[in-house]
Description:
The complex is a heterodimer.
Chain A: H1 17-20, E1 25-26, E2 33-36, E3 46-47, E4 54-55, E5 60-63, E6 72-73, E7 78-87, E8 93-101, H2 121-130, H3 143-146, E9 157-161, H4 171-178, H5 180-194, E10 198-204, H6 208-221, E11 224-228, H7 237-245, E12 260-264, H8 265-277, E13 283-289, E14 297-302, H9 307-314, E15 322-325, E16 332-334, E17 347-351, H10 369-373, H11 380-388, H12 392-397, H13 408-412, H14 419-436
Parallel strand pairs in A: 1-14, 9-10, 9-12, 10-11, 13-17
Antiparallel strand pairs in A: 2-8, 3-5, 4-7, 5-6, 7-8, 13-14, 15-16, 15-17
Chain B: H1 22-44, H2 46-69, H3 80-90, H4 98-113, H5 126-137, H6 139-142, E1 145-146, E2 159-160, H7 163-174, H8 179-182, H9 187-190, H10 202-215, H11 221-240, H12 248-253, H13 257-264, H14 275-295, H15 302-319
Antiparallel strand pairs in B: 1-2
Amino acid sequence: MICRSFPGGTHPPGHKTATAHAPSLICPLPAELVIPLAQHVGAPALPCVTAGQQVARGQVVGRADGFVSVPVHASTSGLITAVEPRPHPCGAELPAVVLQPDGEDAWAEEYQKQSFHVLSVEAMLERIREAGVVGMGGAAFPTHVKLDPPQGKSIDTVIINAVECEPWLTADRRVLLEQMEKVFTGLEILKEVSGAGHAYIGLEDNQPDVAALLAPHCQKRDIGLAVLPTRYPQGAERQLIYAVTGRRVPARGLPMDVGVLVQNVGTIAALTDAVTRGRPLIERMVTISGPGVIRPQNLRVRIGTPVAHLLKQCGVTEEPAMVILGGPMMGVAQHTQAIPVVRGTSGVLAFRRQDVPITTAGPCVRCGRCVAACPMRLQPTFIADYARRDELDLAERFAARNCIECGSCSFICPANIPLVQSIRYAKGAILARRRRM
Amino acid sequence: MEPRTPLLIVSPSPHLHAGLTTSGMMGTVLLALLPAAATAIYLFGLPALRVLLVCVLGSVAIEALWQKATDQPITVRDGSAALTGLLVAFNLPASSPWWLSLLGATLAIVVGKQVFGGLGHNPFNPALVARIVLLISFPSAMTHWTAPQPGRFLADAITAATPLSESQSAVMLSGHLPQHISEFSARYLLGSMPGCLGEVSALVLFLGALFLLWRGVISWHIPVSYLGTVTLLSGIFWLMDPGRYPHPMFHLVSGGLMLGACYMATDLVTSPLTTRGMLLFGCGCGLFTVLIRLFGSYPEGVAFSILLMNAVTPLIDRYVVPRPFGMDRGRELI
């Protein structure tokens, strides 16, 4: 193991103690589940149910549309009341299946237990795809696509991403502690499917208890335990790969270009359920926390549960002023609490009015802190400046497209300049221009 | 139409901030310079206090007036004008009349900073612009030094020469250094010598710089490369002829070097963005300082060398760019 240090980075406050040590609870079913058909990168699923139809738990309600797509399932049994556009975590209104639970929570069919060792690689990939397993760290990229590299590319190293560098979030930590066997089984499945010979678990050193617990298991199974210094964004794919293996993923490439596959802890657990039991991804661990929450905790939440229901479960000190899906560094502030939890939702954070300072951007004083903090070694202040003036050529020459949008630059900027927002705009505008050309 | 009360605040990520602000940084630098200001008052008495007050209050007032006159938001609360004023004062002799101090403050704020668009847009260090303009326009007032009289606030001023000008004229006249300069003494370290307000307290300034390093307001790159280059180059000359060239330690504690290396060259706006750029910048400052001090017509070269490197900063920023993570070569940024 190499444990290199990626360039740049910042040290946001952790805020993890509120939820790190309490066991997760099962979140009761809400009165209505809103299950978006687009919960993954790629083509949205096509609805295959209609309003008025009864569905069972785990039944497919949206079919995969192409290779880079996955099916969507009913999170519980009940009545489909509508298939219509509903508020989606991305900010728009997108097609969703609205489900009224009947309280039975009956599975669609008896899922039989089967050792994955008797399944072929193809059969395992098929189960992963059918179960709708996507990256649960936030990006929601279909897992079967990652596991199936194109001709000429091979994977020799698998890394489980248990870094969870976003403040407040402890969902991955709880999955690792509570479902450790599933994680180790999933790692074996990953090695078998991808043909990788080496496996690592990447963890930050702010979780010594988890590291101590994992160490004997990892030694027994010949898994490398990489305890990395706590620094944001240690959990970003490229930074994690560099820290563990010393390999640099090419700027325009993918981890598979350097023979590495990275999977989030939650994804591994879901993948194990899919392969060994045929269970679809209809539930996930979600951290409900933030200064506005009275009883911060980790809940096992059915996909489609509205945020309002979760905040009611945990209690809010007052009507929240800001609700974030994901972590505070990369998560998206929502405009309504009607937003449902989707497969990529790792956390729900509620901030009170006094926790959300409204700031105005001052002039750049060229302090260079954004340059020093950028984990991709870019010069955020220049790119953002070009983006604001719509000088896309210059923004592109300064490698705007390499930005991973971790937010380190905006976090550190003494002038409160929304650097990552401008760079995000530049990235979008550069891509749009390329498509036009 | 009455705007509706927002139910939820929506803003782009990140939703956290490190907490360091521009005004916070300015305040920290002001704090780090206070002991040096106190030392100047202790050494030079009430005239020093007058220069400090006129420069600081003058800078703030002139910035506010300028912004009001040009119909801009008044931003003097960010502390940058006060800091510029303090640095102008540190670049003036204690004997400066009030009009010279006020003129310095005006030059720094208006010509040094506001005509370029205010904070963040000036290519040259404003305080040094003021110093150089005054030095060239009023050479006698700007080189009228008084000897420090520690603790004697109301004593009559005694005219004296700075160690640097003393050594320069001695070398020019006799070809070798005066005895007391070739035998370096600790009194220079504590600042007991004639000079500008900010030239006479190298030790206090150095401690202030350590505070800034600890607080993370400045990085080590510029001070270390600047002072290192001066030590190295002046050391080479000293080894060649100790009778003619002063000891490197003399260079470090005399003149405006400590002030320049730790507080003026590190000015965020006018120094490079990248660490490699900062090192290059510091080395350039050091090179020109030694060349001007040893071979130039002025005894002191800190201000000129920093301004010279300020002019090179955009070039350094353009050519010294970090190689993006995961890319083989730098981009063609030319």
